[in-house]
């Protein structure tokens, strides 16, 4: 769920401008999952552009406070959301931790890195939501540590039905700065794509696992 249409369009515009999101309907990308896709999103690119990362930091921090109140801790999901999570925590003046996909095999075998106390209110920051599985894995680890997870804020979501269902099933609130619908609208308005390419992108979004097989 996005909260502000202007923010959603501005976020999409910035991600396209710096090529954090690449659209290439004629030569699809292959995701790690094996899916073929006309879109590839790497929000870590935003860190190389100070005005963009400042915009994202400030907008995420606003949503955190507006929707969940000021939490005790911000948690970033490793590895993509560690840096943006630190920036948001700094903006809010609160502690930061990050959550690994699984516990380390050595040392203290931590899955959560940083200082987190039982019962603390936490908001999770993510860079990208696809199916939501890795994000919700982080939420589960935080709950296992007796944190109170108030919700999650992400930069961008593909808006897949499976992600919506996963978040609903786990009773986790998700807010995003922008999403696929706003991206396509901005891409067309800015002439990043043609009407024909837009149709391809919409077709993929309807059935990503079977598209272009």
From TrEMBL:
GO terms for molecular function: magnesium ion binding; orotate phosphoribosyltransferase activity. The lineage of its organism: Bacteria, Pseudomonadati, Bacteroidota, Flavobacteriia, Flavobacteriales. Its cofactor is Mg(2+). Homodimer. One of its GO terms (biological process) is pyrimidine nucleobase biosynthetic process. Its EC number is 2.4.2.10. It is an enzyme of class 2 (transferase). The keyword Cytoplasm does not apply. It comes from Polaribacter porphyrae. Pfam families: Pribosyltran. Residues 61-150 form the Phosphoribosyltransferase domain. SUPFAM superfamilies: PRTase-like (SSF53271). The gene is pyrE. It catalyses: orotidine 5'-phosphate + diphosphate = orotate + 5-phospho-alpha-D-ribose 1-diphosphate. This is Orotate phosphoribosyltransferase. Keywords: Glycosyltransferase, Magnesium, Pyrimidine biosynthesis, Transferase. Orotate binds at residue 130.
């Amino acid at each position: 769920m996005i909260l502000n249409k202007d923010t959603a369009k501005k976020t999409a515009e910035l991600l396209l401008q710096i090529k954090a999101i690449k659209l290439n309907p004629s030569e699809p990308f292959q995701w790690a999952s094996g899916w073929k896709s006309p879109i590839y999103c790497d929000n870590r690119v935003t860190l190389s552009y100070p005005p963009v990362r400042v915009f994202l930091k400030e907008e995420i921090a606003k949503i955190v406070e507006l929707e969940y109140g000021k939490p005790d801790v911000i948690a970033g999901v490793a590895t993509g959301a560690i840096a943006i999570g630190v920036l948001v925590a700094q903006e809010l003046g609160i502690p930061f931790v990050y959550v690994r996909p699984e516990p380390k095999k050595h040392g203290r075998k931590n899955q959560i890195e940083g200082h987190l106390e039982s019962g603390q209110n936490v908001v999770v920051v993510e860079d990208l939501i696809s199916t939501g599985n890795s994000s919700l894995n982080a939420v589960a680890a935080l709950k296992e540590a007796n944190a109170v997870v108030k919700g999650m804020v992400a930069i961008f979501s593909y808006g897949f039905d499976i992600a919506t269902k996963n978040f609903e099933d786990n009773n986790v609130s998700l807010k995003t700065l922008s999403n696929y619908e706003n991206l396509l609208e901005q891409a067309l308005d800015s002439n990043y794509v043609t009407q024909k390419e837009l149709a391809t992108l919409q077709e993929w979004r309807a059935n990503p696992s079977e598209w272009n097989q």
